[in-house]
Specification:
two-stranded antiparallel ribbon
Length: 283
């Protein structure tokens, strides 16, 4: 971080970068150098840590301005590369692609929100932190319930709120307002990804089943086998889960069921009640 250097030390780089030599103080000797100086710096309006002096900036051959990932695919690739691996062979991780996209979409919504200070920005670290929290809760559930695989679900998303809130600088000063804003980001992200994967017209049979009085409860502590039983009870729900290519994997079935139900709720096709740590979907 070049601005971290005090200006008198930056002056010391001028000779190195222009004449490409270094002089030992007090001696009439110069040592030739073959060096390439690469440095990074945040925009001057982003931080008060310092600045790059103009003569030094003039000696750089090129300035490359970086940017946020252009699309969700790049964001997900960076997140997968940089996240901290913690899952073991006893509970291997299996993440549905739509869950990865939801985490990336939360960050992308934050970058466009007037409730977030855009001068401070929202880096990929927010996606990485949220993704790690999502996987951690899935891993915890697999350990507690003795399940073979760790598969994150929609009901795990509230656990990303504490990790993301520390990565955002909000414009509001109201107490507790920050959590509400992130919840809105999560809802918007789930709705956007849901509409990319599924068509509401294809899910009308599911909605019809709920209008007939059917209701389902889900929770992040519920075993995957319970979701498999739900799917067997409702033919239309089984067909919807098949659209997400969950196969016969209990963890993927559980994730798909929650994704379908929450997507229908956010599209105002189902009602949702929160009861003692559980979510109940009804017509």
């Amino acid at each position: 971080e070049l601005p971290d250097l005090v200006e008198r030390i930056q002056v010391g780089l001028l000779n190195i970068m222009e004449e490409r030599d270094v002089q030992i103080r007090g001696y009439r000797i110069r040592l030739p150098l073959d060096v390439l100086v690469v440095a990074s710096a945040n925009p001057e309006d982003y931080t008060n840590r310092g600045r790059i002096i103009t003569p030094l900036k003039d000696r750089y051959g090129a300035q490359i301005r970086t940017h946020y990932p252009r699309n969700a695919e790049y964001e997900i690739a960076i997140v997968e590369q940089e996240r901290t691996p913690f899952e073991g062979d006893d509970h291997p991780l299996k993440v549905p692609p739509y869950m990865k996209e939801v985490v990336a979409e939360v960050t992308r919504l934050a970058r466009r929100s007037p409730d977030v200070n855009q001068r401070s920005g929202v880096s990929v670290r927010a996606s990485i932190a949220g993704y790690e929290s999502l996987l951690a809760n899935a891993y915890r559930r697999a350990i507690r319930l003795g399940e073979k695989e760790s598969v994150p679900r929609i009901s795990d998303l509230p656990y990303i709120i504490p990790s993301i809130s520390g990565k955002l600088e909000f414009e509001t000063v109201e107490e507790g307002r920050e959590e509400q804003i992130i919840e809105k980001f999560i809802q918007g992200a789930v709705a956007a990804v849901f509409n990319r994967y599924l068509s509401l017209s294809d899910l009308e049979p599911v909605v019809a089943s709920f209008k007939e009085g059917f209701a389902l409860e889900v929770a992040d502590t519920m075993p995957s086998a319970e979701y498999v039983r739900m799917v067997k009870q409702v033919e239309s729900l089984r067909e919807a889960v098949a659209m997400l290519e969950a196969g016969r994997n209990p963890g993927l079935v559980a994730a798909a069921v929650e994704f379908v139900l929450e997507g229908l709720h956010l599209n105002r096709r189902l009602n949702k009640d929160k009861i003692a740590g559980r979510a109940r979907y009804r017509g």
